[in-house]
Amino acid sequence: GVLQAMRYLIGKGHRHIGYVPPLHYRTNGFGGDDFRIQAYEKALEENNLRKDPNYICCHTECFASIEADVKAMLQLPPEQRVTALVVGDDHLAAKVMQSVRSWNLSIPKDLAVVGWGNISSASITTPQLTTVDASITAFAHDVAQALVTLANGQPLEEKVYPVHLVIREST
After folding, report:
1. DSSP state of 10
2. Strand extents, DSSP E, the chain
3. pLDDT per position in the chain (171 positions), as tens?
């Protein structure tokens, strides 16, 4: 999902893209075993873009700390300022967009935003949120089935869920 979102934004000409993980998600930035950061890093490397640690929000303990990191990304010198964000979930993306607008910036003109999850409210944000659809309903169903399977002492099969980008107005 992160890789698709990054490739889409890069394809639209963005070269300074920030990453905001979900609330309470621990990350140390580049070089770790965090699969989301690895996908972010891979997209940068594929396109010979600079890996800037200032573009990763590492303070996710509360929304105020995320908001402060996003504001810092937007207050960098113009040639370094982020022009797009990939945000770890749609609720958080909507809150980030609200904050960005309160700073008198326009979405997507000043900052493009991509969320994750394709929750029902993603289509009613202003502007409508571009998001990664991760088949959450199918995943939830399979988790319930997995619990029954485990309770019956049977092994689980590994499954990969397809994702796709739902392009709306925020990019």
Report:
1. H
2. 17-20, 84-87, 112-116, 130-133, 164-166
3. 999 999 999 999 999 999 999 988 888 788 877 788 999 999 999 999 999 999 999 899 999 999 999 999 999 999 999 999 999 999 999 999 999 999 999 999 999 999 999 999 999 999 999 999 987 777 788 889 889 989 999 988 887 778 899 999 999
Interstrand relation of 164-166 and 130-133 (parallel, antiparallel or unpaired): antiparallel
CA pair distance 98, 66, nearest whole angstrom: 13
Q: Which residues contact 26 (CB under 8 A, 6 or more apart)?
A: 60
Angle at 58 between CA 159 and CA 74, to 5 degrees: 115
Q: Residue 86 in 3-state DSSP?
A: strand
Predicted pLDDT of residue 140:
84
CA dihedral 160, 165, 115, 44 (to 10 degrees): 80
29-38 own/partner pairs: CB under 8 Å, 24+ apart: 29/53, 29/56, 29/58, 30/56, 36/2, 36/88
Cα distances (angstroms) measured from residue 44 to each of 39, 51, 70, 91: 9, 7, 19, 25
What is the spatial distance between Cα 168 and Cα 1, in angstroms, rounded to a whole number? 16
